[in-house]
Structure formats: structure tokens, C-alpha cells
């Protein structure tokens, strides 16, 4: 059986392979090996730069160049070589150590110094930094740019339809009018806020040995300031130093990262459901694409599948992200291995989010606003003006204002003529009465247009 997407178990590598392609180099097995090799090589380079480690002084430039090359890239063939070593050792990080040593054999200066590869490290020193780099690159290189594209599209839609009046629905019932642009602006603003929170998550790392105390380090080189060296190294990777850990970095930052991404996805679930509803009401028309089929039995259908697929992938992503956030910070005593298998699924949770975002973008590209349908709904619900009328009546001291409008409108349709007749009989100043008589559902939108344009 070959590696065709047709044979993939996960839809991320099968049906949706093209929609998560940017994440594959980051979260794949090859991506993890790449980061492990990078951390091993750069840690060795940091050791070589430490004045207190006499054995690594005076290395020629070529010895350091090979470390830079190892840290820079990893070919498919090299990743396969690491996997071969893993099958022999039955240990993924030890396989990386042996791979790095094999590459250093070609440099004479390293042949007597090979044992400084993985020096004083536990596997988690390498792993925690590797996953931190993976998740940082995924966020900064893929997720935030993709999210910015989606926010930009929503902002443009909000501005375009800032003045397009629309009837609201609270509890599913006709309610105070708004504009279509203002409702899109709400999501634009919410997503921008959640984007800020995701981008602000501090990504941490550690490199402090078997239980976080630099025990072996001090025995070998008591004169070296290991906490300072460890902090300097972690920060050189663009990460934040965590000085207090057990064998594992406690993953608290990961929980914050996954919670932030889950909250962001929850906002998009609400967007998908609202868009689905507006399409159902006819407020949006979906463009017909030649050759596509909406139903296997009903030829007329154009289904809102992009928003449905988006919602499905979002809720799947959210459930995984919530699990990861709850599970990963919990480890027995100084370390158990339950996080290891779980961590290998972080790319799955993130990929389902990215797949959903692409579906939403596609859905937004394929809808047009039906202004006539929006106007029709507003014109059929003049009872919406019961709110402003009774509010003006309250201002001028008209008794039982709310109750009068409730008796006139609750549970029944009121047309323009009957509502204006009611207003004409009110004991109001002529200017106030005239303003109410000129009001219509389509003109009763408050600051909606202004708010939509400001987002």
C-alpha cells in the first residue's frame, strides 16, 4: 500500500491534505525530528561558546559551521536515517543523538568530543524545546497570517454593508433592526481580540536536566553558571526561560495557547451558525458553481456546506484543544510519560482549526447579499417600532407607554398605517410625533452603520 492520500487514516492527510499543507512540515514526524536535531546542534554550539568548558575551547570554524548546517535544515533522507536508528534503539531522542554524532564524525575536531552531544540532557530537555518551536512557528508563520486574511475579509464585508438594514432576531423572533455590516463587525472585533490573546501567549522552555536542578551539570562542571547558560540558550531560540520545572516543562503555556485557540474557534463556530441561518432566511444567496451538486436526490439544492464543514472541524478542534489544555499540565511527581503520546496530536488539533478557517473563507467568497429579501423582512414587521414609540412616550410622561404598545403589537402583526394611526393619536409634542411618523423599520438602526464602518 502506498502513501497516497487515498490510503490515509486521518482526513488531515487524506481528504483535507491540501487544506493543511502548510502545517505538515511543522507537525509531521519529520518536523519533530527536524526540531530535535536543531536543538541538539544548537545546544552543542552553546556549550562550545561557554568559557568554563575547557574541552570545547579552540574549535575551528568548520566545527561550528557543521552545527549551523544541522540546525538549519533536515532532508527527507536524513529524517529516514533517524527513524532507522530509532528502530534499532527503540528510543526517538537517542536516535537523534546518534544521528548528530554520525554527522560530526566527518569533522576531525569533533571526533574526540562526540560525547558532548546531548550533554547532561534528559530527553525532555530536547522535546520541550522542540514542541515549543513547532507551536511557535505554527502560530506565527501559519495561523496568525491565515487569521489576518479572514479578519480582513470580514472587515471588508462589514464596511461594504455597513448601511444595509437588517431585522435582528433575539430568541429567534423579530427584534430591533440592525445592519448586516454591524453584525459582521461584531465578529470582526471579537476575532481581532482573540487573535491578540493568541499572539500574546508566552512560549516557554527549559534545559535543566533530569529533574530540573542541573544535578549532573554541576558534578561535571561546578564552575559553570548553568542556570544562566540554560536561560541564555532558551532565550536564543526566541523562547521564554522557565526556571522551575521537574523533568518536564509543565506545559502551562501550552494550556494557555490551546485555550486561546479554542476560544477563537468558538467565536468562529458562532459565525458559522449565524451565516448558516442567514443563508436559510435568504439574506445571503450562494453562488451556483457549474458542475457542483448540492444533493444526490434534490437537484435544486445549494447547501451551505462550507459553513457546515467549518463548524464540524471547529468543534472537533475545540474538543481536542480543551483536552490538551486540561491534560498536559498534569504529570505524576517528577515525570510520567502520559504527555508523550498526547503531545504528538497537537498538530491534529491545530490542523482541524486551519481546515475550518479555509472552509469559512471559501463560504464567504461564495455568498452575495440579497438586499430585497432583507428589505422585505423589515417591511413585514412594522411592530418593531413599538420599542422606539413607547420609549418616546416614556420621555414625555405618557402613562402606561409600554403596556399600550404591548396591547397593540404583542403576538400580532401591525402594518405601517395602523402604527401611524396610533402615533397620530398620542399626546406628544408635534416635533416628536412627526419624527415617529417618519420612522420606518429600515431607518431604525441606531449607530449600527457608524459602528460597522469603524471596525
From TrEMBL:
Any GO BP annotation: 'de novo' IMP biosynthetic process
A Pfam family annotated for this UniProt entry: Lyase_1
Q: Name the pathway.
A: Purine metabolism; IMP biosynthesis via de novo pathway; 5-amino-1-(5-phospho-D-ribosyl)imidazole-4-carboxamide from 5-amino-1-(5-phospho-D-ribosyl)imidazole-4-carboxylate: step 2/2; Purine metabolism; AMP biosynthesis via de novo pathway; AMP from IMP: step 2/2
Domain Fumarate lyase N-terminal: start-end pairs: 14-312
Q: What is its EC number?
A: 4.3.2.2
What the entry lists under PROSITE patterns is as follows: FUMARATE_LYASES
Q: Which UniProt keywords apply?
A: Lyase, Purine biosynthesis
Substrates-to-products reaction catalysed: N(6)-(1,2-dicarboxyethyl)-AMP = fumarate + AMP; (2S)-2-[5-amino-1-(5-phospho-beta-D-ribosyl)imidazole-4-carboxamido]succinate = 5-amino-1-(5-phospho-beta-D-ribosyl)imidazole-4-carboxamide + fumarate
Kindly list the GO molecular function terms attached to this UniProt entry. N6-(1,2-dicarboxyethyl)AMP AMP-lyase (fumarate-forming) activity
Task: Report the residue ranges that make up the Adenylosuccinate lyase PurB C-terminal domain in this protein.
Answer: 331-445
Gene3D superfamilies reported in the protein's UniProt record: Fumarase/aspartase (C-terminal domain), Fumarase/aspartase (Central domain), Fumarase/aspartase (N-terminal domain)
Does the record's keyword annotation contain ATP-binding?
A: no
InterPro entries referenced in this protein's UniProt entry, alphabetically = Fumarase/histidase_N, Fumarate_lyase_CS, Fumarate_lyase_fam, Fumarate_lyase_N, L-Aspartase-like, Pur_lyase, PurB_bact, PurB_C
NCBIfam families in the cross-refs:
PRK09285.1 (NF006764), purB (TIGR00928)
Described purpose of this protein according to its UniProt entry: Catalyzes two reactions in de novo purine nucleotide biosynthesis. Catalyzes the breakdown of 5-aminoimidazole- (N-succinylocarboxamide) ribotide (SAICAR or 2-[5-amino-1-(5-phospho-beta-D-ribosyl)imidazole-4-carboxamido]succinate) to 5-aminoimidazole-4-carboxamide ribotide (AICAR or 5-amino-1-(5-phospho-beta-D-ribosyl)imidazole-4-carboxamide) and fumarate, and of adenylosuccinate (ADS or N(6)-(1,2-dicarboxyethyl)-AMP) to adenosine monophosphate (AMP) and fumarate.
Q: Which family does it belong to?
A: Belongs to the lyase 1 family. Adenylosuccinate lyase subfamily.
What protein name is recorded for this chain?
Adenylosuccinate lyase
Q: Which organism is it from?
A: Steroidobacter agaridevorans
Gene that encodes it: purB
